[in-house]
Design goal:
CATH architecture of the largest domain: 3-Layer(aba) Sandwich
Helix content: 25-40%
Number of helices: 7
CATH class of the largest domain: Alpha Beta
Distance between the termini: 14 Å
Order of helices and strands: HEEHEEEHEHEEEEEEHEHEHE
Structural class: alpha/beta
Shape: globular
Bound molecules: S-adenosylmethionine
CATH topology of the largest domain: Rossmann fold
Largest sheet: 10 strands, mixed
Number of domains: 2
Strand content: 25-35%
CATH superfamily of the largest domain: Vaccinia Virus protein VP39
């Protein structure tokens, strides 16, 4: 019901000629948007749901209210949305759920039950260094992104996410080829340096955004574009369609727009919708000026 009223107030921003359906930013509850998505219509979903302090998360003049720190209640609240996400995915589609140490183990069990344990692809550990230190233990400096596939036939584009190969002390460089000899078997492995390598499931090369980053919008919990870019490039190609039901500052939408993927994103906070819209309109006009107009943008307030 709420969704229908919001849709009546749709605003369309045109960037130029495009045959793709409009991209959408929806000001609504995550669940109502996810269940309205036709079955099998999405190639990838990345979500970064709120969890932890049970308070207001404050950024530079921007804020949203977080979920209370009760993992069981969190899973009970999130599960219908995870189910709707699964149903909206195409057969080759994937869901990525961004969590931290407080909720990841609870949500992992729920996802195993929902998708099946054999649809679990990766537990991506995103490591960073900035932030507070701990005096009573090791600093908590990573988030976890759980990757689940809709079916056994999931898409993966390793060549789209290669990173520079760093030479270890056990590597010899000969004519742009790195050589590694297996000490036990004596076998020699050769890797062309220019091709780079597919990252492992722990990522240490993407730092959290600092205060002076150009990318920073001031919205709390904003994730780096490079992080979401690696996720989307790994499982989608240009022209595919992605979703984020907890859009926040609009990182997923901004990355999708830049990479030529279609998108639908939602958030229940007016601040988030305003920040995301501003970001996308600015980037859309930049892309149009550079000669690659993204499709029209529909803003459902
Ligand atoms: C951790 S932030 C997302 C940050 C985002 N990944 C970014 O890079 O900016 C979580 C977002 O979920 C939104 N949110 C919380 N509960 C929601 C709900 N029930 N439906 C839609 N959005 C919700 C909050 O307003 C907040 O913007």
């Amino acid at each position: 019901m709420e969704q229908i009223e919001l849709d009546l107030r749709v605003r369309r921003v045109e960037f130029g000629a495009s045959t793709r359906p409009a991209d959408r930013i929806v000001h609504a509850d995550a669940h109502s948007v996810a269940v309205a998505e036709p079955a099998g219509s999405l190639d990838a979903i990345y979500i970064d749901p709120p969890f932890g302090t049970g308070t207001i998360r404050q950024g530079r003049g921007l804020r949203y209210s977080d979920r209370a720190d009760d993992p069981d209640a969190f899973v009970a609240w999130l599960s219908p949305l995870l189910e709707a996400s699964r149903d909206a995915l195409a057969a080759h589609g994937s869901l990525f759920v961004h969590l931290d140490y407080r909720a990841v183990h609870y949500v992992k069990v729920a996802l195993d039950r929902l998708f099946g344990r054999d649809r679990f692809v990766n537990e991506i550990v995103w490591c960073y260094a900035v932030g507070g230190k701990s005096r009573r233990g090791f600093g908590r400096k990573h988030d976890t992104i759980l990757w689940y596939a809709r079916t056994d036939d999931w898409a993966f584009y390793p060549d789209a996410v290669r990173v520079p190969r760093r030479g270890g002390s056990h590597m010899r460089l000969v004519d742009g080829i790195q050589e590694k000899t297996d000490r036990k078997t004596g076998r020699v492995y050769r890797y062309p340096v220019h091709a780079g390598k597919v990252p492992e499931d722990w990522w240490t090369d993407i730092e959290t955004l600092n205060h002076s980053d150009r990318e920073r919008t001031g919205y709390p919990s904003q994730k780096p574009g490079r992080l979401v870019e690696r996720v989307l490039c790994a499982v989608t190609k240009p022209g595919d369609r992605v979703a984020d039901w907890f859009s926040g500052s609009g990182t997923t939408a901004a990355v999708a727009q830049r990479l030529g993927r279609g998108f639908v994103v939602a958030d229940r906070e007016a601040d988030a919708i305003a920040v995301c819209t501003k970001r996308l309109v600015a980037q859309g006009h930049e892309l149009a000026r550079a000669g690659t107009p993204p499709p029209a943008l529909e803003i459902h307030r």
